[in-house]
Design brief:
Distance between the termini: 60 Å
Helix content: over 70%
Order of helices and strands: H
Strand content: under 5%
Number of strands: 0
Length: 46
């Protein structure tokens, strides 16, 4: 196998890894936002 294949594969793995981190952070952020909205004592008021 060529050197370029391994370089391409390593970049792909890094991008997949960072993509997974971004997706997890977005999921956690959405969950925290919903929880804070439920706990907000002001209700609908700004």
């Amino acid at each position: 196998m060529s050197h370029a294949f391994f370089i391409t594969a390593s970049y792909a793995l890094v991008l997949i890894g960072f993509g997974a981190l971004v997706a997890d952070a977005a999921r956690r952020h959405a969950t925290a936002k919903r929880l804070l909205a439920e706990l907000d004592p002001r209700g609908d008021r700004p």
